[in-house]
Design a protein that fits this description.
2 domains; 6 helices; 12 strands; eight-stranded antiparallel beta barrel; alpha+beta; Porin; Rossmann fold; rod-shaped
């Protein structure tokens, strides 16, 4: 009867000792931090290499929060590093390169000196905080971009033209009007020039060659650091008039020609409505390259090509 009374008491004491021992037993140490990828399925293999490098790198470093959860969110060209620390803190940083991923992850996971000396253990109550979970996407750090609106650009300037053959130098004015829908443009151009002498042969008395050209062109627009570059191609219709005095009588003639024109125009500053510009173009006459043409038998041959330069000012508006 006495042994029956002591048996429950002994069982209770033994059970209490086991409970106290269980409560005093420290938790198993963490071996992390754990690195998780949150990426589209199509890009998972592409980012898996970076995840492996990061995991291997972090395991070699001392004084890290081994119980933390690190998640890599892919956002276009950028990567968001998100850390859930074992004490419940959450931090996120946006990076753009592999080197930044390593530096930022190390900085977010490094424990302060006192905390680094404490045993790292996960209690059952803390485990739900470390489970990977999908969070709302952080705002995209890149500014929103939109296609530039169509614009109209007008320009006028002084022109110089070197022509041949025969060789001459002419001066005049030139202008253009473009409609640009980035990165393309469509426009018209016009110019007027006159020369009063030839460079490579004797010139008749009172000689002049006057030309008027109109053309259409298409172009490709390029935005540089502080300027804009347009490459242009199109046909020109050129009207020419020649006149001279051979000492006995005044002789003259006129002609029309279709030429291929290839040009380039540089303007700036690109964010200003009013801009300075410089342009150059090479104009070729397919018909005259094969055979010389004359406005009058007593006058020099008409030019088969020319190279032009224009300096001026332009206005750009939407």
């Amino acid at each position: 009867m006495t042994e029956a009374r002591w048996l429950p008491l002994l069982i209770a004491i033994f059970g209490g000792s086991l409970c106290k021992l269980a409560r005093g037993q420290p938790g198993l140490p963490c071996r992390g931090p754990e690195v998780t990828l949150v990426v589209p399925d199509a890009e998972h293999d592409q980012w898996q290499t970076l995840r492996s490098k990061l995991s291997d790198h972090l395991r070699t470093l001392p004084d890290l929060d081994r119980c933390a959860q690190l998640t890599l969110h892919v956002r276009g060209a950028n990567l968001v590093v998100e850390v859930h620390a074992s004490d419940g803190r959450v931090a996120a940083r946006t990076v753009t390169s592999e080197a930044e991923v390593m530096r930022v992850s190390e900085a977010l996971l490094t424990l302060p000196p006192q905390a680094a000396k404490l045993p790292t253990a996960v209690t059952p109550a803390a485990e739900p905080l470390l489970q990977a979970r999908e969070l709302p996407d952080p705002p995209d750090p890149r500014p929103a971009t939109r296609e530039p609106a169509p614009r109209v650009e007008l320009g006028v300037g002084v022109a110089a033209r070197l022509g041949g053959s025969p060789l001459f130098v002419a001066g005049g004015i030139a202008g253009f009007a473009d409609v640009a829908i980035a990165p393309w443009l469509l426009g018209v151009s016009a110019r007027w020039e006159i020369t009063t002498g030839l460079l490579n042969e004797p010139t008749l008395m009172d000689y002049y060659l006057m030309s008027t050209a109109v053309g259409v062109h298409v172009g490709r627009h390029f935005e540089l650091e502080s300027t804009s570059l347009d490459l242009l191609l199109g046909p020109n219709l050129v009207f020419e008039a020649q006149d001279a005095d051979d000492g006995n009588q005044d002789i003259g003639g006129s002609a029309a020609d279709v030429r291929v024109d290839l040009g380039a125009r540089l303007s700036g500053p690109k964010r200003s409505r009013w801009r300075a510009f410089g342009s150059t173009d090479l104009e070729l006459s397919p018909a005259r390259l094969a055979k010389d043409r004359y406005a009058h038998p007593g006058l020099p041959a008409l030019p088969s090509f020319s190279w032009g330069f224009v300096l001026g000012v332009s206005w750009s508006g939407t």
